[in-house]
Every structure is written in structure tokens, then in C-alpha cells.
Amino acid sequence: MKIATYNVNGVNGRLNVLLQWLKEAEPDIVCLQELKAPQDKFPLKAIQDAGYNAIWHGQKQWNGVAILARNLEIEEITRVLPGNQDDVQSRYIEALINGVVIVCLYLPNGNPAPGPKFEYKLNWFQRLSDRAETLLSLKIPVLLIGDFNVMPTELDVYKPEKWVNDALFRTEVREAFAGIISQGWTDAIRTLYPNEKIYTFWDYFRKAYERNAGLRIDHFLLSPQVAKKLISGGVDRHVRGWEKTSDHAPVWIEINEFK
To answer: In what residue span(s) does the Endonuclease/exonuclease/phosphatase domain sit (predicted)?
Structure first.
């Protein structure tokens, strides 16, 4: 089973890119972030014509997450990350697919830091940590997938010394990510490539893609039941070079299917 994550940076504006990649890569399950579309503007017909079922949590102009599945039923669990009933940002959706819990998330950026946006990010991280711990306790296959807006280590960022005070790399954020890992989750891409510089995002400015001045901020965290079935994974880096593409590239893993 091939599972992918892709921050599309506007699902309607990048629809041709998304459809081209889906046809080329043929993932079985896809988590999308930054739809930047209200609920009624999600391009469902185009997605269905490409062979995928979908559930999504849209929001006008900003945020938005979706889960796509090819020839598989999607049973929605929740589209609310517990812990703050006043949070209206569309950043979380959770579903059951073929006996596996898929969590698609888009963690807040948090800049400028310090400040209210950074506090919101840390609070969101704590809520995610609490939910992650609950899901682990169920002892079932779970994947936490998406744009975490954090570079876990210096290996995950081009010129780390320039990012020390950024909300994606501040000590508090890296510690929050490490705290979730310590519950028993496996960082799939780093496990597969323990010593390599692998990036999933390149800014539009200063020819970042051409210089490979990137960040690794899109992650797969696997519960123990999934980690033991991990086969391979990687980044479809070339998609970042397509015309009118997102500033992220699709990231994917392959796992043995659950019987």
C-alpha cells in the first residue's frame, strides 16, 4: 500500500498539478493540506474522475485538509482535534481506511515567534500530543501524516543557523515533536534515510529549489503496528519543478498491507 502526503498550496489553483501527480504516482491513500478552499469548492468531481474517494474539511482562503483513497472506503472519525472547542481552523481530519486510522494534519506555522501565533502552535502541538497518546493506547494501526511545520533536527534544514529563532525550528517546537516521537511513534522517512539530507519544501524565493535550499517539514509518524510493515519511502522532488506547482513536493511511503 502506497500512502502519500502533499501540501498542495491551493487545491483548485494547483488542480492540474495534483491530477498529473496522482496519475503518475498512483498512491492508494493521499493526505492533502492547505486546500485554501471552502467546503463547497472542493473539486470532488475531478478527484472522483481520477479514481479517488475523498473526505475534506475546507475553509475559505486558508488551511483545509483532505484524505483521498483509491478503491477504498473512507469512514470519517472526526474533523476536530480535541482540546479546544473554540478552534475554528480547518487543520485536522481523521478517518478509518481498510482497518487503518489515517490522521491528516496541517500544524500551524507559528510565526512570528514569540507571539500569539506561536502560542497557538504550541497549544495545538499539545492537543496533538494528547490525541496521539490516546490513539497509541488503542494498539491499532495509526499514521499521523501531513505538514507538521517543524524541522526536527539540523539535518532537516538548509543552513540551520539561519532558522534558530523561526517558529518552525525553535527549541520549543522541536521538543514538542520529539515528545510525540517518544510516545512510541516512528518517523518513517528519517528511519529509512537516517543520515541523508532530505527536503520536502523549497521556498519560491531566491531560487531555493534550484539550489536545493530546502526544509523537511512533511512527515509520517507510524504507530508500532505500522512501523514494522514499512517497506520504502521518498520524496517526489521533481514535482516541485513543475509549472505552477506547490512549494512542497509530495512525500510517500509504502507499507505491507494488513491482513
So the answer is: 4-248
Active site residue 106: yes
The residue annotated as part of the active site, out of 6, 28, 147, 156, is: 147
Q: Please give the grid coordinates belonging to residue 259.
A: 491482513
Helix 116-137, helix 171-181: angle, nearest 10: 10
Type of residue numbered 235: V
Cell of 178: 520529539
pLDDT tens string 52-81: 999 999 999 999 999 999 999 999 999 999
- ∠ CA(148), CA(38), CA(95), 5° rounding? 50
pTM over 0.90: yes
Residue from 106, 158, 199, 209 carrying the catalytic annotation: 106
Distance CA 163, CA 145 (A): 23
Catalytic (active site) residue 40: no
Architecture of domain 2-255: 4-Layer Sandwich (3.60)
